[in-house]
Structure prediction request, 477 residues.
Amino acid sequence: MATLSGPQTQISDASLDELRMIVRGDVLTREDPGYAAVRPAYNAMHPGLPSLVVRPTGAADVVVAVNFARANGLVVAVRGGGHSVAGLSSVDGGLLIDLARMNGVVVDPEARTVRVQGGALIGDMDHETQAFGLVAPSGIVSDTGVAGLTLGGGEGWLRRKHGLAIDNLLSAQVVCADGELRTASADTNPDLFWALRGGGGNFGVVTSFTFRCHPVGPIVAFAGVFHPVEDAENVYRKFREWAATVPEEISAMIGCTTLPASENTPPEIHNRPFIVTGALYSGDSLEGQKIIQPLREIGTPLADISGPLPFAGVQAAFDEFFRRGTLRSYWKSTFVEELTDPILDIIMDKARSRPSDRVFVIAFQMGGAINRVDAGETAYSERSANWMISIDGNWADAADDDRVISWVREAWAEVHAHGTGTQYLNFTGVEGEGVTAGVESAFGQNLARLAEIKAKYDPQNLFRLNNNIVPTAGAGI
Prediction:
């Protein structure tokens, strides 16, 4: 097995037998029948080939797995949902702690909270909370893991009204590098709680999260309008004008890509470049339909799936863009204060010149509740920008890796030059740059404090397959 120090190590059969005796879940080597059934990663570039997989059924199993990794000096990856674009939930030759069996969700409708285990997907959480007309702010693809999304910040369809996922996190239970299960909240281990809200998987394995919920749905007003790319000038500028007028209850986006034929998408957009405008209103559905109506009146759409829709359906509406294990992906994101004319010109140019059909150039409307949090209140530091631009490189053929990755980097650099200088690490690849790339621009003034907390809870950097924060010199607990 791969080790933190470099040379490989041999794990004896006796050690594996002992591990299997203690772990209630699965302990799998490549020769075991259940190995092939491990939930695959999203990014086909990073499928991973771990030498050993532990699939815990609860926190006790996670403690055992972490202690085993530390005692043997193993390279360890943690997979919540496995949707890491950068492949940070995959490992070759090391130990994979796969939380897929830990997908429980418990809602307290009176307190308006939900407790979610570390292996749950957004769809798992929404299914339970929507039974009570509640939502915990999360992402926009139902197949995404709650854990990874949250630890990186967590932007979704409620972001402008109710903030990021981390802004609604009340507490978490974390197995740290020393094998101790700790609670992190505003009152208990507040430094760890601060670091978890945007600092990624640097500080341990989060076995459960408790979130604040909000009354939203089950029916919401949603806009999903598809336009021909030839009408880009009109659509992008009219969208910008509309977005400048809407209340915080609206969270919107605009992007350009191409999709193959599918029963889950309108036939009018199959295999042709299109611009999609999307928006969700988190308040009264009838009021929301009035506010999104101008989006439906821009130009002559190819297709329009807008209307009053179940919130859970909206959460799954973009799943078709990001099917697990089907595409190679390299993304880069940046934040900008406003969609100025120069930035809009760059976005439109890149939308028209994509190097692969499945490349997705997206602008997400931010601001609102996100920006009312101080930059130092959470590890996630970008609290000023009103837009995030994501250049999502997606393609099928490995022979196109260099060409598409180079294009994404060049396109991103053009937009980034006009931005705030920050990145969203959940939407940032690390191919060729290493896992510490981007952390300085993502965390800014918060990086020094994060490095100190890393030194406290993981001084040996056991958890390093992430957007890694190098621990400063200091003693562990």
User: Anything to note?
Assistant: The mean pLDDT is 95. The chain has 13 helices and 19 strands. The two ends are 28 Å apart (CA to CA).
